[in-house]
């Protein structure tokens, strides 16, 4: 398949673009998930809260990491400074 054939068929071009966008979003979600797990494991939380956040992250693979970075991470470091 050459580029001329690819650009002459808009449905095929749209499908390839959609697949590329989907792959990009999936890799982004995977990177967010991995970064959240590393951040949770390196945080100063106690063992119990670390396990809770890991369970949340695995239960909701996109919302769990987002919740960690928006809520949990800051709270973990504020708790550390309180001691």
From TrEMBL:
UniProt domain Cardiolipin synthase N-terminal: residue ranges: 32-73
Keyword Chloroplast part of the UniProt annotation: no
Main location: membrane
Membrane-topology annotation of the record: Multi-pass membrane protein
The keyword Cell membrane is annotated on this UniProt entry: yes
Family annotation (InterPro entries): CLS_N
Spans through the membrane: 21-41, 47-71
A Gene Ontology term for the protein's cellular component: plasma membrane
Swiss-Prot/TrEMBL keywords: Cell membrane, Membrane, Transmembrane, Transmembrane helix
Subcellular location, record wording: Cell membrane
Pfam families documented for this protein: PLDc_N
Designated name of the protein: PLDc_N domain-containing protein
The organism of origin for this protein: Saccharopolyspora karakumensis
């Amino acid at each position: 398949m050459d580029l001329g054939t690819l650009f002459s068929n808009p449905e095929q071009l749209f499908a390839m673009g959609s697949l590329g966008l989907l792959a990009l979003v999936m890799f982004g979600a995977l990177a967010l998930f991995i970064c959240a797990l590393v951040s949770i494991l390196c945080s100063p939380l106690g063992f119990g809260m670390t396990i809770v956040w890991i369970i949340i992250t695995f239960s909701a693979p996109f919302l769990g990491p987002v919740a960690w970075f928006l809520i949990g991470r800051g709270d973990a470091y504020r708790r550390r400074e309180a001691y």
